[in-house]
């Protein structure tokens, strides 16, 4: 099968545990792209955390960012599609985080805002640096007017397990998902990696059977289900592996490269 559109998750999939991109994987991706396949990074990161990776690989095209809440042209930085959240419905979540000492940020397509910029803990600053994010000071909430696409809570796995249980008992106006062990994301109900990939495929004239998607976590399930070939990394949770068509090697073993060679270059 010749795949025309290949969606790659970034953290835990394309990158290893040190957040490094292997040169051999870059070479393979370039070879696949040279044969006509369109490579799309489909990530929980903001565009400015993913576009540098596209540029490093010598790719043009699109980035599906914020777990599907926005699609951005990697060359022009044009927002092709975004799912705007209802800011008023976020107020209970913001209050919860403030009252319980849970770090959070709110995101526009290109901006990331935190409540107390000057008082950020070292581990929080380090996290933002790892994901190539530069936080800004959140203005007074009553004055907010920009379109928001994602709300993220960050903390230890145990703490976020508690938060997830609490929020799961609420009437949920958002798509709430664990995008990593240390993150909970809230987005518009329609926003997901799978739906964004679907919208991009419609625009590009590509049917699902000509799409491959590779990911490693629960936020990747929708795109693994939508793609004709959904591949999970060996480092994925068991539920993600069971939902995929196939399991490749881990992110520390260049599983993306292994899958591309098997299905696109063999």
Automatic annotation (TrEMBL):
GO terms assigned for molecular function: hydrolase activity
CDD domains: HAD_Pase (cd07516)
InterPro entries linked: Cof, HAD-like_sf, HAD-SF_hydro_IIB, HAD_sf
Top EC class of this enzyme: hydrolase
Keyword Amino-acid biosynthesis: no
Family annotation (Pfam families): Hydrolase_3 (PF08282)
Chain coiled-coil ranges: none
Record-listed E.C. numbers: 3.1.3.-
Protein keywords: Hydrolase
Name of the protein: Cof-type HAD-IIB family hydrolase
């Amino acid at each position: 099968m010749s795949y025309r559109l290949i969606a790659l998750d970034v953290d835990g999939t394309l990158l290893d545990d040190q957040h490094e991109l292997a040169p051999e994987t870059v070479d393979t991706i370039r070879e696949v792209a040279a044969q006509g396949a369109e490579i799309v990074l489909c990530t929980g990161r903001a565009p400015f955390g993913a576009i540098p990776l596209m540029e490093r690989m010598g790719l043009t095209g699109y980035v599906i960012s914020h777990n599907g809440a926005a699609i951005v042209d990697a060359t022009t930085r044009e927002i092709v599609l975004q799912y705007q959240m209802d800011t008023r419905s976020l107020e209970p979540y913001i209050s919860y985080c403030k009252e319980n000492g849970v770090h959070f940020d709110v995101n526009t397509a290109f901006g990331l805002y935190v409540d107390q910029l000057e008082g950020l803990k070292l581990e929080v600053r380090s996290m933002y640096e790892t994901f190539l994010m530069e936080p800004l000071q959140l203005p007074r909430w009553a004055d907010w007017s920009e379109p928001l696409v994602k709300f993220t809570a960050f903390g230890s796995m145990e703490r976020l397990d508690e938060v997830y249980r609490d929020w799961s008992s609420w009437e949920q106006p958002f798509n709430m998902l664990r995008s990593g062990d240390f993150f909970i994301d809230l987005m518009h109900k329609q926003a997901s990696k799978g739906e964004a990939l679907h919208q991009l495929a419609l625009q590009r004239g590509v049917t699902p059977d000509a799409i491959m998607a590779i990911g490693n976590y629960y936020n990747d399930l929708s795109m693994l289900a939508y793609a004709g070939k959904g591949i999970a990394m060996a480092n994925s949770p068991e539920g993600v592996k069971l939902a995929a068509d196939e399991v490749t090697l881990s992110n520390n073993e260049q599983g993306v490269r292994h899958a591309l060679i098997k299905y696109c270059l063999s």
